[in-house]
Amino acid sequence: MASYFLCPYLGGDIELTQEREIHIAGQHPDLFPEFRGQIEETLAVPDRIVRSARVGNAYLFSRWYNGVRGGKYVVVVVLTESGASPRRWIVTAYLARKLAGGEIVWARS
Q1: What CA–CA distances, in Å, run from 67 to 19, 70, 71, 74, 91?
Q2: pLDDT digits 0-9 by tens, 26-50
Q3: Torsion sign, CA atoms 24, 30, 31, 33
Q4: Of 20, 36, 47, 56, which residue has the fewest beta carbons closer than 10 angstroms?
């Protein structure tokens, strides 16, 4: 069963499948499930959105949290598909001290 999070920037809901939840919990247990709410908030109100340099249809949403593990960015990677039935889904999410480079497509002023 999937969960859905509002993402105004992409104009709709972002899907988080159970398989991706298991991946995030297994690969990034410092983030998930304890900070699930911050994943949702990062998609709704990010500090910055970067287009992936490696995957053209991927966006990295990030937001800084002082209260997450002594101060960390929550980064949520969203893949997008266009077409008759466009799909947007979370492929992974993780914590970071610094953000990777890339083409910034939106930043909070």
Answers
A1: 27, 6, 6, 11, 24
A2: 999 999 999 999 999 999 999 999 9
A3: positive
A4: 56
What predicted TM-score, i.e. pTM, was given to this entire model? 0.95
* Full residue range of the structural domain in which residue 99 is found: 3-107
Amino acid identity for residue 81 in this structure = E
Over the stretch 73-86, which tens digit does the pLDDT of each residue have? 999 999 999 877 88
Length of the chain counted residue by residue: 109
**SS3 state at 106:** strand
Provide the domain count of the chain: 1
* Dihedral, CA of residue 20, residue 22, residue 27 and residue 32, to nearest 10: 90
Other CB atoms closer than 10 Å to residue 64's CB: what's the count? Answer: 14
